[in-house]
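ok new one. same drill as before - structure tokens go in, u give me an amino acid for every spot. 159 of them this time. try not to just spam alanines like last time pls lmao
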């Protein structure tokens, strides 16, 4: 039951305990796009309508980035650039469920993007730029201290 690995890792429990919990709640085994196993509650098995395009800028150590043992489905080949040497996640820039880079602040507190993917569409780039402007305005010049800067957050990283 490979799908139990991330849950067991996150909880610090055993795969056996996770299997028992999944059985207790009536979770149904499903096949994911990449062929791996996932779990859904029986009342959540209806097909999902494709989401509208979206972007997000997430902070250091965000649980969305940190909460999975198997991360390739959203990190692609970028993991070494997004985590420090101790495994702490830096800031991340997301497009439609995948990490495409990081973000930093300049000395004046303006949010800047450090994209790692060449294939980010012009529409997604503009949406990310709009989100960077929104975050800059919300932070209002306040700098967020980067305790765990990833390689992607270093000067000269990204595109």
């Amino acid at each position: 039951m490979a799908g139990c690995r991330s849950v067991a890792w996150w909880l610090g429990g055993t795969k056996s305990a996770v299997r028992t919990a999944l059985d207790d709640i009536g979770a149904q085994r499903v096949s994911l796009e990449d062929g791996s196993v996932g779990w859904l509650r029986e009342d959540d098995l209806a097909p999902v309508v494709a989401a509208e395009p979206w972007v997000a800028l997430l902070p250091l150590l965000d649980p969305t980035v940190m909460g999975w043992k198997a991360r390739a489905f959203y990190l692609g080949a970028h993991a070494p650039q997004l985590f420090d040497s101790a495994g702490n996640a830096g800031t991340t820039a997301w497009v439609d469920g995948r990490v495409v880079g990081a973000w930093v602040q300049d000395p004046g507190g303006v949010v800047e993007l450090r994209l790692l993917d060449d294939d980010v569409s012009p529409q997604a780039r503009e949406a990310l730029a709009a989100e960077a402007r929104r975050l800059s305005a919300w932070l209002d010049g306040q700098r967020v201290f980067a305790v765990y800067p990833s390689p992607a957050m270093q000067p000269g990283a990204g595109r």
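The longest strand covers residues 98-105. and btw The mean pLDDT is 88.
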